[in-house]
Write a structure and sequence with these properties.
Distance between the termini: 68 Å
CATH topology of the largest domain: Lysozyme-like
CATH architecture of the largest domain: 3-Layer(aba) Sandwich
CATH class of the largest domain: Alpha Beta
Number of helices: 6
Strand order of the largest sheet: 1-4-3-5-2-8
Structural class: alpha/beta
Strand content: 5-15%
Number of strands: 8
CATH superfamily of the largest domain: Peptidoglycan recognition protein-like
Order of helices and strands: HHEEHEEEHEEEHH
Shape: globular
């Protein structure tokens, strides 16, 4: 029995390709093969190019977190308790956050938080003679975030929370005392991460990164004028000689940084 064309030499309706055409293809050196190779080569080149093409970088500023719910000053500072104060001072942006604890009792009812903040305000503006409460934000054990220092939560308000490093930073105070062995509520750490993620996202700062800050006061850990590198989310004790925010809360800072980074959409 003579040679028969295999199935792939058949037309779509099942008829065999004529022997003449087969002979022609065979007699034209490499014609069909050359066409096939050209198509194949183009496909390979396209695949290689697609694999080697760099993944588009996420635009600067794209790593932003949603603004969390913030209770305004009016909720804790009534007219009778308010004292005269100068206009707020501002920086160009916020590139770091300092975490504090208020060194006050832990077993409070969250409904009493406004009263507690008002008490802290009275102490700082009274016996310490500050012009306002020093912290930009305060967080209670239930995870509720309160506006602290006046000037606008969405602006880079210069605080009075970390001597020497109040510029270009935000101070977040956890209401309570968090020394070694004291439980730190997850609702509280989640709220700290949320406000840090939002504020740092406004300057495209990665919460897990470091920030370059310049000391403005020699009573800090660094003499005035010294530029140093500190974590973008740092404990008060990183910039000032203190045990604040307490060993228990300090131990939670790595987790807070990671949570804040995820809230910004970072991996």
């Amino acid at each position: 029995m003579g040679w028969q064309a295999p199935d792939w030499w058949r037309t779509p309706d099942g008829a065999r390709v004529s022997g003449v055409l087969v002979v022609v293809l065979a007699c034209v050196p490499g014609l069909a093969a050359a066409l096939a190779l050209m198509v194949c080569a183009q496909g390979v080149e396209r695949s290689v190019a697609e694999e080697e093409r760099p993944v588009a970088a996420r635009p600067v500023g794209a790593y932003k977190a949603a603004r969390p719910e913030i209770v305004p000053r009016a909720a804790w500072l009534d007219r009778d308790a308010r004292r005269a104060q100068p206009p707020p001072r501002y920086d160009d942006k916020v590139v770091a956050v300092f975490v504090h604890h208020t060194d006050s009792p832990n077993g409070y009812d969250c409904a009493d938080t406004p009263r507690i903040i008002r008490y802290l305000y009275a102490g700082q503006t009274g016996s310490r003679d500050w012009d306002d409460i020093g912290y930009n934000f305060l967080v209670d054990r239930c995870g509720r975030i309160y506006e602290g220092r006046a000037g606008g939560v969405d602006r880079a308000v210069t605080g009075a929370h970390t001597q020497g490093f109040n510029h270009r930073t935000t101070g977040i105070a956890a209401i309570g005392t968090f020394t070694a062995g004291v439980p730190v509520p997850k609702a509280m750490t989640d709220a700290i991460a949320a406000i840090a993620a939002w504020k740092l996202g406004l300057s495209a700062t990665d919460p897990r990164a470091n920030a370059r800050l310049t000391s403005s006061n020699s009573l800090s850990r660094y003499s005035a004028g010294t530029t140093t590198t500190l974590p973008a989310i740092a404990g008060h004790n990183e910039g000032y000689m203190t045990s604040c925010p307490g060993a228990a809360l300090t131990a939670r800072l790595p987790e807070i940084r990671e949570t804040a980074a995820r809230l910004q959409g970072r991996r």
